[in-house]
Amino acid sequence: MDKNELAVKEMQEGNIEEAAKLLNEAIEENPKDAIAYANFGNLLSAVGEDDKAIVFYDKAVEMDEDLATAYYGKGNVFYTQKKFTEAIDVYQEAIVKGLQQGDVYYMLGMSFYLLEDYRRALPSLSRAVELNEEDVDARFHYGMCLAQAEEVDQAMIQFNRAIEIDDQYSDAYFNLGVAYAMKNDAEKALELFDKTLEIQPDHELSANAKIQMEELLRQGE
């Protein structure tokens, strides 16, 4: 392993000081090591030094304008800061530069999603699911975007798949229940709202929806 690889390993194990030492050495030995600067950006971001992290990501890109991971790291800083428009720009640049991993599409999709631009979130979240079928959060939010687009049947498929991956995913049960309510299946919706509350007793939306479904069922008796 070179010092960059060792530093990443140390970061993954939570040894931040040792990782910083290795990255400093890597930069001293090769001041044009763009990957070392990007990794240092990741380290600074991990400890909440966002402004300093951006300086290191920018330095990495200055040395290697095709270093996709530096754009991705910078996007994550903007995302954490809730600067979603800025995050979108650099996530898209990371993809243009060749980063084809589920995570970057998920983060791009979530940036659009949190701006309530569901139409533009949809293709990114779809791609995230294609690249990582077990990413339960990507699948759930893909379902949410489909629901916003009134593709309820397709949304239900994604919510069901999310539950298969994680049978404790309360929001997937809740939104699947909402979908059944939209299809006028109050009994199935109630069952799913009950399941949501079993997993998360303080789920207020589900508690309110449960009352509504119970009232509908009483009226239908």
Automatic annotation (TrEMBL):
TPR repeats mapped onto the chain: 34-67, 68-101, 102-135, 136-169, 170-203
SMART domains given in the database record: TPR
Keywords noted in UniProt: Repeat, TPR repeat
SUPFAM superfamilies: TPR-like (SSF48452)
Name listed for the protein in its UniProt record: Uncharacterized protein
Lineage: Bacteria, Bacillati, Bacillota, Bacilli, Bacillales
Coiled coil residues, start to end: none
Presence of the UniProt keyword Amino-acid biosynthesis in the record: no
PANTHER family for the chain: TETRATRICOPEPTIDE REPEAT PROTEIN 6, UDP-N-ACETYLGLUCOSAMINE--PEPTIDE N-ACETYLGLUCOSAMINYLTRANSFERASE SPINDLY-RELATED
